[in-house]
């Protein structure tokens, strides 16, 4: 998993008790202080792996990373924003602190701290990590008809690639600001032989069968994240406003069809389970063979990926 974060040193308290101090963890934050992202600050990527013990950095010393708290911030115009504080720990000592905005926080704007919640951080992170389809996405049903995702409900039969018709276990909706790393990816009509635009979360994975291995993956079947297809022309990011995202959850992880494109359903694992109702996510989904088909980042020629896959999957 790759997320975009600010370093603690790039987020400074400009008013209040902790004036002049960088971002810290929950115990050292003070309500009504004003936080500001520095003018030259840039987000950087943080690569994490998940497991029974929690989050771990995948590079360097592979330290543990803890979800410390969820902040609620108010902008000068009254808009409310949320952000997560992540703490990297090395040998029981704080090694680094990061801020993960759940929406776009602008530099040199003062955001007043009005909420610090420890118990909601894991759930909000799970929601942010979930692969999701946008409202209006047409899903192929078990009878071949296509239905808008928001019209589905538990028990409806959906067509899957490898298991035929499968009943929906649960449908979950979340609304996020369509900014920053949460701005959706739009696979425009025809980009992957789809008849209509497909709008989905950047890390949602698509399943593509290559008749020729144009990506050099060494196999015909590949899973590829939507954000890796962005070329600025046929696959783009749509920024601004809010977006309703929906997750389709089955008893197992499946490949389904959205706007005619094969795409994964919601994967229940250590990372996403916290966003589910009690009892629904008691167990992780079992490993499925298609999960081994994900294309590594370093194999992907980003600017050409969509064109290559369109060509590779053409009839």
What keyword list fits this structure?
315 residues, mainly beta, six-stranded antiparallel barrel, three-stranded antiparallel sheet, 39% strand, globular
Characterization of this structure:
With 315 residues, the chain is mainly beta. It has two helices and 23 strands. The chain has helices spanning 121-129, 305-312, and strands spanning 2-7, 11-15, 34-37, 44-51, 54-57, 64-74, 80-90, 93-101, 111-117, 133-134, 138-140, 146-148, 157-160, 164-167, 170-177, 185-187, 198-200, 205-209, 221-225, 235-237, 242-249, 255-258, 261-264. The strands form seven sheets. It has a six-stranded antiparallel beta barrel with strand order 1-4-5-6-7-8. A three-stranded antiparallel beta sheet has the order 10-21-15, with no helix packed on it. Strands 17-16-20 form a three-stranded antiparallel beta sheet, with no helix packed on it. The chain is globular.
Percent of residues in beta strands: 35-45%
Described by strand count, sense and barrel closure, the largest sheet is: 6 strands, antiparallel, barrel
Report helical residue fraction: under 10%
Structural class: mainly beta
Shape category: globular
**Unreliable parts:** none
**Sequence of strands across the biggest β-sheet:** 1-4-5-6-7-8
Q: Output mean pLDDT.
A: 83
Order of helices and strands: EEEEEEEEEHEEEEEEEEEEEEEEH
Radius of gyration, in Å, reads 20 Å
Describe the secondary-structure layout.
Elements: E1 2-7, E2 11-15, E3 34-37, E4 44-51, E5 54-57, E6 64-74, E7 80-90, E8 93-101, E9 111-117, H1 121-129, E10 133-134, E11 138-140, E12 146-148, E13 157-160, E14 164-167, E15 170-177, E16 185-187, E17 198-200, E18 205-209, E19 221-225, E20 235-237, E21 242-249, E22 255-258, E23 261-264, H2 305-312
Antiparallel strand pairs: 1-4, 1-8, 2-3, 3-9, 4-5, 5-6, 6-7, 6-9, 7-8, 10-21, 11-12, 13-14, 15-21, 16-17, 16-20, 18-19, 22-23
């Amino acid at each position: 998993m790759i997320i975009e974060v600010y370093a603690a040193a790039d987020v400074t308290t400009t008013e209040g008790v902790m004036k002049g101090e960088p971002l810290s963890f929950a115990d050292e934050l003070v309500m009504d202080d004003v936080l500001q992202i520095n003018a030259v600050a840039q987000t950087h990527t943080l690569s994490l792996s998940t497991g029974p013990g929690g989050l771990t950095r995948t590079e360097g010393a592979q330290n543990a990373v803890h979800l410390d708290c969820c902040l609620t911030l108010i902008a000068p115009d009254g808009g409310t924003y949320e952000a997560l504080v992540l703490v990297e720990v090395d040998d029981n000592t704080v090694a680094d602190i990061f801020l993960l905005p759940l929406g776009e926080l602008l530099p040199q704007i003062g955001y007043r701290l009005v909420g610090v919640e420890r118990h909601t951080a894991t759930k909000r992170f799970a929601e942010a990590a979930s692969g999701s389809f946008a409202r209006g996405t047409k899903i192929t049903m078990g009878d071949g008809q296509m239905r808008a995702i928001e019209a589905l409900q538990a028990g409806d039969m959906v067509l899957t690639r490898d298991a035929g018709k499968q009943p929906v276990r649960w449908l979950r909706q979340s609304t996020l600001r369509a900014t920053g790393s949460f701005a959706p990816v739009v696979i425009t009509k025809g980009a992957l032989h789809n008849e209509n635009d497909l709008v989905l979360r950047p890390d949602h994975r698509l399943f593509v069968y290559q008749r020729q291995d144009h990506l050099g993956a060494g196999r015909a079947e590949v899973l590829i994240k939507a954000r890796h297809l962005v070329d600025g022309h046929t696959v783009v990011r749509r920024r601004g406003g809010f977006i309703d995202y929906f997750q389709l959850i089955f008893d197992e992880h499946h490949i389904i069809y959205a706007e005619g494109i094969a795409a994964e359903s919601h994967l229940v694992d250590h990372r996403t389970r916290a966003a589910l109702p009690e009892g629904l996510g008691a167990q992780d989904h079992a490993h499925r063979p298609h999960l081994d088909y994900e294309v590594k980042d370093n194999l992907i020629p980003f600017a050409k990926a969509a064109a290559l896959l369109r060509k590779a999957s053409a009839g």
